[in-house]
Design goal:
By secondary structure, the chain is mainly alpha-helical. It contains nine helices and five strands, in the order H-E-E-H-H-E-E-H-H-E-H-H-H-H. Helices cover 46% and strands 6% of the residues. The strands form two sheets. It has a three-stranded antiparallel β-sheet. 13% of the residues are buried.
C-alpha cells in the first residue's frame, strides 16, 4: 500500500510521467505555490531579466563553439534570437542516444523531454494526428545543459565533448552504430577540459540527491539570494508555534 502511494505521488510530482520509462499515465499538474514559496519567487523575479540575458549569452557560446566543428552532424541553430528566453537549448541528431551516452560518460547530463509523441502514451487515450515529422523529432532531440548557473566553462566542456564525439565517429552512422555495439567498453580520450565538476542547476541537483535515497524532490527550487528578514521571522514563528 505504501509502495503504491509512493509511486502515485512520484507520478504526480512529474506531471504523470514515469521518469524511468518516459511513459505518461495521466495528465498531471504542478501548482504548488504556498506563501513561503511565493515570497521566495518574489525575490527571484527581481533577477529574472539578468538571468534571461545570461541564458542568451550561454546560447551564443554554444553557437560559436559549434561553428568550429566540421564533423558535427547535428542540427544546432545558427540564428540568435532576441526574443527567446532559452528555457531549454535543444539540438537534433540522428545518433541522439549514442551522443547522450557519450556525454553522460564524460560527466555532462542531458535531457530528453519527449521520448515519443504524446498520442503514443496509451493511458492518455489521445487520437493519433499522424504527424510523422513529430515522431522524427522525438527520436532526435536532446536538450543541452542550460540554466542560470551554466558558465562559459560548462559550455566549453559540453561543446568540446560534442566535437570529440563526432570527430572520432565514422562518417557512416550505420557503421558507427555497428562499432558501438562491439565496443561498449571503449575508452574515449578527452583533453584537460574534462567535464569533471560540471555543476547542475540547483533544482536538478536537489532532485539527483533525492533520487539517491529513493526520495522525491517536492521543492520548486532554492533561492540563491538572502532570504528576506520578514520571511525568516515568520518562518521562525511558525516553526515554534507549529
Amino acid at each position: 500500500m505504501i509502495r503504491k502511494l509512493l509511486d502515485s505521488r512520484t507520478l504526480v510530482r512529474f506531471n504523470g510521467e514515469d521518469r524511468q520509462t518516459g511513459e505518461f499515465h495521466y495528465h498531471g499538474y504542478t501548482a504548488l505555490l504556498d506563501n513561503v514559496q511565493a515570497a521566495v519567487l518574489d525575490v527571484k523575479l527581481r533577477h529574472l531579466p539578468e538571468w534571461i540575458e545570461h541564458r542568451r549569452t550561454i546560447a551564443s557560446y554554444i553557437v560559436r563553439g559549434s561553428k568550429q566543428s566540421r564533423n558535427c552532424v547535428c542540427r544546432i541553430s545558427r540564428v540568435q534570437s532576441t526574443s527567446t528566453t532559452y528555457q531549454n537549448y535543444v539540438i537534433r541528431t540522428e545518433c541522439r542516444d549514442e551522443l547522450r551516452e557519450y556525454l553522460k560518460a564524460n560527466g555532462v547530463e542531458t535531457l530528453v523531454h519527449w521520448r515519443k509523441p504524446m498520442w503514443e502514451h496509451k493511458d492518455l487515450a489521445l487520437d493519433n494526428p499522424r504527424l510523422s515529422e513529430r515522431k522524427v523529432f522525438c527520436r532526435e532531440v536532446i536538450s543541452l545543459p542550460m540554466s542560470a548557473e551554466t558558465t562559459p566553462q560548462h559550455v566549453e566542456m559540453t561543446v568540446g565533448c560534442i566535437r570529440d564525439f563526432f570527430a572520432s565517429r565514422p562518417t557512416s552512422l550505420r557503421t558507427y552504430r555497428s562499432q558501438l555495439r562491439n565496443e561498449r567498453s571503449m575508452t574515449l580520450s578527452l583533453s584537460e577540459r574534462s567535464c569533471r565538476g560540471f555543476e547542475q542547476a540547483e533544482i536538478r541537483a536537489m532532485s539527483i540527491e533525492c533520487e539517491k535515497v529513493g526520495g522525491i524532490n517536492l521543492a520548486q527550487g532554492v533561492c540563491d539570494t538572502e532570504v528576506p528578514q520578514a520571511v525568516r521571522e515568520e518562518a521562525h514563528t511558525e516553526s515554534r508555534t507549529g
